[in-house]
Each structure stands twice: as C-alpha cells, then as structure tokens.
Specification:
Helix content: over 70%
Oligomer: single chain
Distance between the termini: 86 Å
Length: 117
Amino acid sequence: MASKTKEARVEQKRYWDAQLEQRVSLLKEKGLDADAVSRDASVRKLRAKIRETGRRLTAIGGKEQKAEEMARIKAEKLAAPKIKKSDKKKMAEEKPAESKRQQKKKKRKEEQNKEAE
C-alpha cells in the first residue's frame, strides 16, 4: 500500500478511518467503555496507521510546495534581463573599493619605499 502519490495516501487514510470506525463500533457493541476501546491493540494500531499516513501527506504537501517555489524562482530567473558580455566588461572595469587590508599593505609599501630612499 505504500505510495508516494497524494491521491493514494488520501485513499489510504480513508481506508484506515473506515477500519477504525468499524472496530470501535464493534467494541462498543460488545459493551466496552471508551477507556477499554482506546487500549485495544487493533484500535491503537489503526490510529498509528492514520497518524503515519497523515505525516506522509504533510511531507508530500511540503514537497509540492517546494516544487512550486522552485518553478516560480526559475520563471523569475528566465524573465530577468540577461547581462550582455559588454556590460560584464564595464562592470569589471569599475574597480571595487579596496579593502582595509589592501589599503594598509599599500601604505606600508609606500613607507618602506620612503625609508629606502
């Protein structure tokens, strides 16, 4: 019964719910109280199956949401204007500001050159 599709998991959840209702009604007919019904091994097993299926449905929903988000991001990237090679050269020619470390190196070099003279 294991499946990765949402439809199959929804069907499984309906099946387990029906089985649980059937088991609970059978136990009630036998005259057991709510506490005894909740301790029944079959009931606990069916509730565990329902919880497991619910978690899988949540995971499948998360994957679908992530896929939609990735598709949206991809569409945005495709819609964005392309940077031409000439624009890249212009960007490369514009020097970024020197870091403080580079500025210190340059200053020390100039001081060393003055001392050497």
